[in-house]
Amino acid sequence: MFELHPKLFADTIPLAEWPLCRVLMMNERTYPWLILVPRRADISEIGELEAADRALLIEEIARLSGIVRARLSPDRINVAALGNVVSQLHVHVIARFKTDPAWPRPVWGAQPVVPYSDGELDRQAGLWSAALE
Q1: CB neighbour class for 124 (10 Å; exposed up to 12, middle 13-18, buried from 19)
Q2: Coiled-coil stretches, from where to where (predicted)?
Q3: Theoretical Cys-Cys bridge with 23: which of 16, 90, 92, 93, CB 3.0 to 4.6 Å?
């Protein structure tokens, strides 16, 4: 049975349920940061997914990247499945701008996480949810 990892549950806001993945928004205002989590139990690596799910994951990554590009026009979209801290398979899709504080380095550990204010969190989640439909 699929259960979202407690750290992902604590650090994100749910936005949508796609055919394979739950789409989440990271509570981090410095970078527009979304996460795809395949709803499959006990999977930690992309290669552990069945072939059809691997193909669907790539399509959902492409779909989400296209939505991010259309909404924000970033200089770059970073896509990563690290799993060093949270072993549950999840894929980060992060809009990057040459003006962001970590550019051109990765966002992880570049600076402390800056969560959204309550009102801004709700506003951003609403905007992303609408864009994901």
Answers
A1: middle
A2: none
A3: 16
6-101 maps to CATH 3.30.428.10: yes
- What gap in Å lies between CA 92 and CA 109, rounded to an integer? 15
Is the pTM higher than 0.90?
Answer: yes
Give pLDDT tens digits for 25-35.
999 999 999 99
